[in-house]
Design brief:
MetI-like fold, 12 helices, mainly alpha
Length: 306
């Protein structure tokens, strides 16, 4: 296992290097720049700004300078928020997005696994069909439809919850964003759990347990464990996506997370901010995929990473 983890970490370094290279040059070759305004600046002012941020240097030298900064843990200054570094901006925004994402993932996993197992144990019954309909709606409806619907119902009609704002992370401000993030994920997990459970219940091992007269609780426990593998596989990238912020949800509810930072950076051509957000997302995807592979070995003893 240790050798496998070391190999994966080496691949992770190579992958991050490739992501850094592609993102750096793609940002630079696109037309426009971070200081191109509708009303152009004085040429001498523009020259001084470019010199200050080293944008007047050859592209290869800018790339090398950025890599040297990364090696020392420096993501560079933000071109838009000139009083802050990219590291400071991400350090402020990431805990907000990570907290929302973790809560949404926990809610989605709990509801999705429970609903999927409930439907599988009642295969082809009315409860199974109702769960499928609700799960299909959850998958089909995008976040920009779910969020306004929740705001209209619980915020404007019933008046139970605020329709937006952050207020330093007050609990009442978190309910609707978490529910919006969790809804489509719970629907996907429910469908995955249902399909995996139906397949597991029809497997020879479960039929053998039934033939020996094992209690239904033991059969369900074995079937659920056998069905967890595809769910764990899905949870890896889902966790990375949720914990790095949702652009739509954070924009609709006015949450200052990673998603909004990434959009603001892209619109303002803030090279370093977009690069920092991209590297953060890539790092989390790699880390969660590694955790998924390790979790496989814990769930299924037949899986070994040598």
């Amino acid at each position: 296992m240790q050798r496998y983890i070391a190999t994966r970490l080496l691949y992770a370094v190579v992958t991050l290097f490739a992501v850094t290279t592609l993102a750096f040059f793609l940002m630079r070759v696109a037309p426009g720049g971070p200081f191109n305004l509708e009303r152009p600046l004085d040429p001498r002012v523009m020259e001084n700004i470019h010199r200050h941020y080293h944008l007047d240097e050859p592209l290869w030298r800018q790339y090398w300078r950025y890599l040297c900064g990364l090696a020392h843990g420096d993501l560079g200054p933000s071109f838009t928020w000139q009083d802050f570094s990219v590291g400071a901006l991400l350090a402020h925004a990431f805990p907000i997005s990570a907290g929302l994402g973790a809560a949404a993932l926990a809610l989605a996993a709990t509801v999705g696994i429970a609903a999927g197992a409930f439907a599988a144990f009642r295969h082809r019954g009315a409860a199974d069909q109702a769960t499928l309909v609700v799960a299909t709606l959850g998958v089909a409806l995008p976040s920009f439809v779910i969020a306004p619907a929740l705001q209209l119902l619980f915020g404007l009609t019933l008046g139970w919850l605020p329709i937006g704002g952050w207020e330093d992370g007050g609990v009442s401000c978190l309910v609707l964003p978490i529910a919006t993030l969790a809804a489509p994920q719970a629907a996907v997990i429910a469908r995955l759990t249902r399909a995996s459970m139906i397949e597991a219940l029809a497997s020879p091992s479960i039929r053998t347990l039934r033939a020996y007269g094992m209690p239904r609780s033991i059969i369900r426990r074995h079937a659920l464990r056998a069905a967890l593998a595809p769910i764990v596989s899905y949870l890896g990238p889902a966790a990375a996506a949720l914990m790095t912020g949702s652009v739509v949800v954070e924009t609709i509810f006015g949450i200052p997370g990673i998603g909004r930072s990434f959009v603001d950076g892209a619109l303002n051509r803030d090279y370093t901010l977009v690069m920092g957000a991209t590297l953060l997302v890539a790092s989390l995807v790699i880390a969660f995929n590694l955790l998924v592979d390790i979790a496989y070995a814990a769930i299924d003893p037949r899986v070994r990473h040598d």
